[in-house]
């Protein structure tokens, strides 16, 4: 179930070392695969070189009855995943940054400049004409987080749409705001913002968003596994993809609307707005990719908009899109930032320069320019049984990302303590290596404890039990020997 690439620990010029704990990662994800997590694919790059490229588990594990299939399909390094909201970054944002570098887009411009029909006000005098491109990028335009255009029981007849052109008209001319724009407003993450940004790309370029990124970015990079609506391409079949929901979009047959899919989704975008209302071509969801292509896409950002002498945008454009929003520094222009280290999925060791994004299907990327490193984790955590409003895959740490991303850190440390057991005094030495704590005692017992963030890990050893928590500098670590606590 595990296919490993190369791995190493690399010294940085500032004498910090990046520790990529291959054994720790493999053991942790592998254990969760055994416990029921469906599948995961991980790639870590540094200085443009692959440090680790590994797949775990299955791309297809269950049938439509949530029964384990006899011949489950193993993930491969080429398996493609539904990126979900990573589409926002690696399709829409890349297109916008490319257009900005050409002078075809200014984020301070009103949306109406690019979509002339984007005008009109609501009863509270919130007007489309006042909305700027950057309001959409920072999720401060005032739109609700989502609208179920595809379900006539959730919207009025004027807003029901399973047609891309009608949906575009609704978003551009009818959809109302739920709050004021910009100013000191906190961001409210919204798919609508990026559906509209995708339309901005199409209006400026005269091309559909999939064609724009294909011609101007993906083909230039030599990407062969990154595209929208991949099953429309004769080169791909369902078995090339990691499966998502078992019963289409029905949540175990608890949801119904016209034309709802009820079969296992594999190679079709899961997102309902994208699939039913936008024909799979939307700025917020719909892109598929695999590990190799994602490593190239993330490297473009690490290279400040270039790749192998091809320039897609310049440093000024990239800096602009990574500028923290004044009232919430976890938001740049689309990108999520580790600026104040409040987003847990960045893990403990990502620098405050790190940025990235996540996707609902179980996908995540982190790009850390301080360490010239990028990490992509693609999972199919939604390819699990659904009960009581929850996918079983959501309970596993692999699908929460942070437990994987803390597996690279800086500089090992050593701690020494003593404890008494009976009439004997023992010396206890701790060696921190990334998130691995190796402890040895003078009773000739050598063991290894794996620490995951602030979670407790209990390891039973010879004549003693060690309890460690919250492995961080300047922290007192408590361990237990027999019935006695020590610190």
UniProtKB/TrEMBL annotation:
UniProt domain Beta-lactamase-related: residue ranges: 30-385
Any single Pfam family the record assigns to this protein: Beta-lactamase
Superkingdom to which the source organism belongs: Eukaryota
UniProt protein name: Beta-lactamase-related domain-containing protein
Keywords, comma-separated and alphabetical: Hydrolase
Matching Gene3D superfamilies: DD-peptidase/beta-lactamase superfamily, Purple acid phosphatase-like, N-terminal
Stretches assigned to coiled coil: none
One GO molecular-function entry: acid phosphatase activity
InterPro entries reported in the protein's UniProt record: Beta-lactam-related, Beta-lactam/transpept-like, Diverse_Enzym_Activities, PAPs_N, Purple_acid_Pase-like_N
Lineage: Eukaryota, Metazoa, Spiralia, Gnathifera, Rotifera
Domain Purple acid phosphatase N-terminal: 400-485
NCBIfam families for this protein: PRK03642.1 (NF002968)
